[in-house]
Amino acid sequence: MSKIGKMPVTIPKGVTVNVKDGEIEVSGPNGKLVQELHSDISVKVENDAVVVTRATDQKLHRSLHGLTRALIQNMVTGVSEGFKMELEMIGVGYRAEMKGKLLELSLGFSHPILVRAPDELKLEVLPKENKIIVSGADKQLVGQTAAQIRSFRPPEPYKGKGVRYVGEYVRRKAGKAAGK
Q: What is the pLDDT, as a whole number, of residue 178?
């Protein structure tokens, strides 16, 4: 048995889980998420917990077992607590500003970069700390949006300037003059 797949997913108060027609729907205070299920993986709601089982011990079914359970756990966590990623901008003149639903980034280019956040997400800018906070119920969408913002100016190894995740370690390189 899969170590992750055999553990049941507990459903907190205020969260409802419905399984029907090959998909699972989880709704709670932070929204509603829907995920398609593989036909060989069965999901049941029993005693305030979601139990995932697989058809056989084939390699594909073993991998889908743990994956499905992890996706359901992320959905339950997302609609009850939510997910959040923080980005920090390091560099002279690097700043961000919200203009309605658009995030305007000044990252040292000749033009500002405009990012439209998906409706399911919330973008927040802390100008004093030079931070951007991406939050929402869908873990994949939060991570994808944060990675897209980081990709406009990833941290460079010489001075460390750029957009990075809070707590991300950037390996620093010595410059050309250090070889003497």
A: 60
pLDDT at 2 over 80: no
The token pair that represents 101 in the structure block: 């639903």
Taking Cα atoms as reference points, which of 102, 93, 100, 90 lies closest to residue 131?
90
Looking at residues 39-65, what average pLDDT do you find?
Answer: 91
Report the mean per-residue pLDDT for the chain.
92
User: What's the mean pLDDT in 110-131?
Assistant: 93
Structural domain tally of the chain?
A: 2
119, burial (CB in 10 Å: exposed 0-12, middle 13-18, buried 19+): exposed
Contact 110, 51 (CB under 8 A): no
How does DSSP classify residue 104? E
Judgement on whether residues 20 and 88 belong to the same structural domain of the protein: no
Triad 107, 84, 105: Cα angle to 5°: 15
Cα–Cα dist 132/28, whole Å:
25
